[in-house]
Amino acid sequence: MSGGEVVVVTGFGPFRQFLVNPSWKAAQGVKSVGLGEQTDVYVKEVPVSYVKTQQIIAEIWQTLKPKFAVHLGVARGSSVVILEQTGKNCGYRDKDVCGFCPKSHCCVEGGAEKLDSIINMRAVSKEFRRAGMDVIYSRDAGRYLCDFAYYCSLYHGQRKAALIHVPSTGSLSSADRLVPLLQTLMQAMLAQLEGHSDTARPAVTVR
Prior knowledge:
Elements: E1 5-12, H1 22-33, E2 39-46, H2 50-64, E3 68-75, E4 81-84, E5 86-88, E6 114-116, H3 121-130, E7 135-138, H4 145-156, E8 161-167, H5 175-193, H6 197-200
Parallel strand pairs: 1-2, 1-3, 3-8, 4-7
Antiparallel strand pairs: 4-8, 5-6
Helix pairs in contact: 1-5, 2-4
């Protein structure tokens, strides 16, 4: 680590047919290309487990105190990149890889029903779509581990988090297309976070 500001990028562990989860491969790809000289990228693989996800996300915010966290998950059957605006607190009924589901069906008991990222995902997706990229905006992250991790991170990190669903099919599922796009997306989010997105917006390049 070079002493710059820390951005955490997480991907998920093995899940059903994904022996190596594409979201974790993508996170490692972002680590290898970086997010600019002033930014240290810390990557973490998160098991598809409610209990471990809760522990890891809380620990990330308490110990690393990152400037921003980006959680990557895979959208099965999707060929586009999906930017999620909102994390939902309750309604988790599907069991994780350990066969477990929280009794309360919630991320944080007594927490707000939903939390929105500090980043305007609609604006980011619009900008990338104008440049011809397959990036769409969503307000429903699916009530499974991706949504669960996102809410926990928004809760612990004062909403300075993003959830990006990466595609499992199509041309964007290949690392050489996906990683540069994720890099540029994250840089656009960081520019917006710093409040000078008009001056510091990275050029959106179509590969």
